[in-house]
Design the sequence.
């Protein structure tokens, strides 16, 4: 898979179903705790900074953002979960929008769940993974910020995530860094196999 960075564009920031675009392309959704590195991941895969906004304040993304990736597939950035400072009302609204998208969208072929490689998965991470499995949504786990971990310890950290999430054998987990681009080729392969 080769992406032309100049052919990547946001289609829409949707707040409701009626706004989901009809592109005829497969969609790959992205879920993860706020600040885990979703926007950075999108930018790395697309080969261009500034496709998705990178926030210094967590919890900034509050819409479903659809990105046309070189007319090959559509990335759908799902707002970060588990941001403590969200109000109860905001959390409920988050749930409805995500649930209806993730469980009802035919075009969505897989969900990339991003988890910070430095730490064991949080309860929110585990809940999200269980949710995806319950609805039989294919999951690709991307363990982010691998550049922050010594190379010799990466496999150990991957093992912790595998165990704590109780990953099933068919589930893929890829340590990844938006800074060093570690395993970017594996990410392309994985996406190409799902769309
Ligand atoms: P929200 O949209 O707020 O939910 O955050 P996000 O998940 O989109 O995270 P974002 O890409 O904005 O990154 C959050 C912070 O982590 C930023 O300061 C990034 O520069 C940093 N970051 C993201 N990915 C990496 C990575 O692979 N390595 C390192 N070292 N830092 C990263
Ligand atoms: Mg973001």
Sequence:
């Amino acid at each position: 898979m080769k992406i032309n960075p100049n052919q990547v564009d946001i289609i829409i920031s949707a707040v409701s179903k009626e706004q989901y675009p009809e592109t005829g392309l497969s969609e790959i959704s992205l879920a993860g705790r706020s600040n885990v590195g979703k926007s950075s991941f999108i930018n790395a895969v697309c080969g261009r900074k500034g496709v998705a906004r990178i926030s210094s304040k967590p919890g900034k993304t509050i819409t479903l953002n659809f990105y046309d990736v070189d007319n090959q597939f559509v990335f759908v950035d799902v707002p970060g979960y588990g941001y403590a400072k969200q109000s109860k009302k905001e959390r409920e609204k988050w749930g409805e929008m995500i649930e209806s998208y993730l469980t009802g969208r035919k075009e969505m072929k897989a969900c990339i769940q991003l988890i910070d490689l430095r730490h064991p998965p949080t309860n929110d991470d585990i809940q999200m993974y269980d949710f995806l499995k319950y609805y039989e949504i294919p999951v690709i786990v991307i363990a982010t910020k691998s550049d922050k971990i010594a190379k010799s310890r990466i496999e150990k950290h991957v093992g912790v995530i595998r165990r704590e999430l109780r990953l099933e054998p068919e589930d893929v987990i890829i340590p990844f860094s938006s800074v060093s681009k570690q395993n970017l080729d594996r990410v392309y392969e994985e996406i190409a196999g799902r769309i």
